[in-house]
Prior knowledge:
The chain has helices at about 5-20, 30-40, 60-70, 70-85, and strands at about 45, 50, 55-60, 95-100, 110-115, 130, 135, 155-160, 170, 175-180, 185, 200-205, 205-210, 220, 225, 225-230, 235-240, 240-245. With about 250 residues, the protein is α+β, with helices and mostly antiparallel strands.
Amino acid sequence: xxxxxxxxxxxxxxxxxxxxxxxxxxxxxxxxxxxxxxxxxxxxxxxxxxxxxxxxxxxxxxxxxxxxxxxxxxxxxxxxxxxxxxxxxxxxxxxxxxxxxxxxxxxxxxxxxxxxxxxxxxxxxxxxxxxxxxxxxxxxxxxxxxxxxxxxxxxxxxxxxxxxxxxxxxxxxxxxxxxxxxxxxxxxxxxxxxxxxxxxxxxxxxxxxxxxxxxxxxxxxxxxxxxxxxxxxxxxxxxxxxxxxxxx
Length: 248
């Protein structure tokens, strides 16, 4: 038996024993922990890039399902997964899907996570009695705006050195532009920055920094770049300004 399979076996049976003996309500932190384990076991290399599954199905008892399953809980777990993807230097292909399912064979406090690579229509549970529709979380509709955030935020940019020290912007899935131009989402007053100096996109659930043909160039951790996938705590130099990229 491989180490990974042995680890899965021990987790399932040891945690199952404690759940049977000391049954208690399933906590959100346990969902996070189980998702993280499942992601780690199922990541794979594709064309030299390490990907994580894009579909996560969480099965739980009826009592836990009725208490936990909500749009807010799925939103929180969705954001947690994206931030974990960035911290772990992974990528996701396609749309990230999160689904909660009720499974009458599971005891209170137990949770089983299935992580796989699937098209939106293929994210289905192998077992379970009641399954919510797969949540492909995109921009909310008009009806949802009263109860849902308009944008998720996964990381922050903070000026740690230069003319605009302590200026900060949280970033999510929308493209942002950096420079002296008034229309930029991140406005710098640094005279050595171009009007549109650089911009950041969100691709495969990662933030990608591009130099916008700036006069003085864009640097990350001291190296000049034209395009680069950002990692947690990278330091971006624009003119005489230094900005740190940090996962929330």
